[in-house]
Amino acid sequence: MDLMSEDEEGRSGDNNLSLHNDQLEYLIHYVEQDRDAILMENEDLKDKLEAYRQREHEQEEALHSLSGLRKRIQVNEHKYRDHLKHMRQSERAIECLKRRMSELTGNTQALHALSVSELRDLEDTLDTALYKARAEQKIVEQRQALDRQVEVQQELKLCVICMSAEKTILCLPCRHVCMCQPCSAHSEVTRCPICRLDIAEKMAIFA
C-alpha cells in the first residue's frame, strides 16, 4: 500500500509539473506576442515621427520662401515710391520751364529786346527743358514698368482659384502657396492647383 501511495504521489507531482510547464509556455508565448506587437508599434511610431519631422522641415522651408518673397515685394514697393517722388519733383520743375518758355515764345517783342547773354540763357533754358523732358519720358517709362511689376507681384499674392483673396494656404507635400482659406475648404479641392499633386495636408499661413 505504501508503494502504491508513493507511485500515486509521484504521478500527481509529475502532472502538476507538466501543468506548470504548460502554463509557463503559454505565458512565454503571450509575452512574446505582446513584445512583437510593441516592437511593431514602436517601428510605426518611429516612421510617423520621421514623417512629422520631414513635414516640419518642409513647412519651415516654405515659410522661409514666403518670407523672402514678401521682403522682395516690400523692397520693390519702396523703390517704386522713391521713383514716384522723384518723378513728381521733375514734373513740377518741367511745368515751371514750360510756363517760362510759353511766356517768351508768345511775345516776339520781348524776344527781340533780349540781349545776347539773355538769349544764351534762354537757349540754355530750352536745352535744359529738352533734357528734362527726355528725362521725364524715361521716368514715365520706368514708372509704367514698375507699375506692371507691382501689378504682377500683387497678382502673385492672390488665390489662383478666386483671384480676389490673398493666398494663405500652404499645400503639402508640394509646398505651393496658392489658395485662400475659403477656396481650400471646398471638398473638391483635393489636388494642388499649380502642380496637380494630391494634397496630403493644408496648412494656414499668416503674414
TrEMBL record:
Residues 159-196 form the RING-type domain. InterPro entries: Znf_RING, Znf_RING/FYVE/PHD. GO terms for molecular function: ubiquitin protein ligase activity; zinc ion binding. One of its GO terms (biological process) is ubiquitin-dependent protein catabolic process. The keyword Metal-binding applies. Keywords: Coiled coil, Metal-binding, Zinc, Zinc-finger. Gene3D superfamilies: Zinc/RING finger domain, C3HC4 (zinc finger) (3.30.40.10). The keyword Zinc-finger applies. Residues 35-62 form a coiled coil. This is RING-type domain-containing protein. It comes from Aphanomyces astaci.
